[in-house]
Specification:
The complex is a heterodimer of chains A (about 110) and B (about 120). Chain A is mainly beta and about 110 residues long. Chain A is built from no helices and 9 strands. In chain A, strand 6 and strand 7 (about 70-75) form a beta hairpin. The termini of chain A are far apart. Chain B is about 0% helix and about 50% strand. The radius of gyration of chain B is 13 Å and the shape is globular. Classes of the chains: A mainly beta (about 110), B mainly beta (about 120).
């Protein structure tokens, strides 16, 4: 599975959009981009995933560049409960081996 | 709520002992995988079970073993516990059709402390 690069930490004011970037320059054609988050001491929570097109669900939006070498997770109106470590992972989705990097620690503040 | 249930939530064991952790996967999910997450690090893949057989393994010694049952639930067994085995153990399940783009759901994990 391709490796990803994310900033170590980010801050965001409550109510503002949080934009979390991820680089995955070695992604292959059959690999999806997945985002999970982990709130302290809990299991990773699935957020969203996509292959080529931008995706949106009730939690977030995923913007994937045309060359698929990078993506951005957008939390449109961040709240204090969105404070967590966010992991960007690329894999095919046909197996359960997810390779977690160090993720981005998002701190949402008042 | 992911439908993936793990037990126990917390336990303390002594070095050298053995431990069994349990996982009930989400309904309709036949692939179960286990991860170890040490404090301050991301989860590390231990192994995966599909149709009751190990189907992929990470860089973990043989004293980490597992089982999957006909109802797709699973166990993780760790023998000869070491202090470094102290971690959060996560179970994850994915759907039966295993097609590309499936979502993998995690349980809340079992916290193991080895003293």
């Amino acid at each position: 599975d391709a490796k990803t690069t994310q900033p170590t930490s980010m801050d965001c004011a409550e109510g503002r959009a949080a934009n979390l970037p991820c680089n995955h320059s070695t992604i292959s054609g059959n690999e999806y981009v997945y985002w999970y988050r982990q709130i302290h001491s809990q299991g990773p929570q699935y957020i969203i995933h996509g292959l080529k097109n931008n995706e949106t669900n009730e939690m977030a939006s995923l913007i994937i560049t045309e060359d698929r070498k990078s993506s951005t997770l957008i939390l449109p109106h961040a709240t204090l409960r969105d404070t967590a470590v966010y992991y960007c992972i690329v894999f095919t989705g046909t197996a359960s081996k997810l390779t977690f990097g160090t993720g981005t620690r998002l701190q949402v503040t008042l | 709520e992911t439908g993936v249930t793990q037990s126990p939530t917390h336990l303390i064991k002594t070095r050298g002992q053995q431990v069994t952790l349990r996982c009930s996967s989400q309904s309709g999910h036949n692939t179960v995988s286990w991860y170890q997450q040490a404090l301050g690090q991301g989860p590390q893949f231990i192994f995966q079970y599909y149709r009751e057989e190990e189907n992929g393994r990470g860089n973990f010694p043989p004293r980490f073993s597992g089982l999957q049952f006909p109802n797709y639930s699973s166990e993780l067994n760790v023998n000869a516990l070491e202090l470094d085995d102290s971690a959060l153990y996560l179970c994850a399940s994915s759907p039966i059709d295993r097609k590309a783009g499936n979502t993998i759901y995690f349980g809340e994990g079992s916290w193991l402390t080895v003293v």
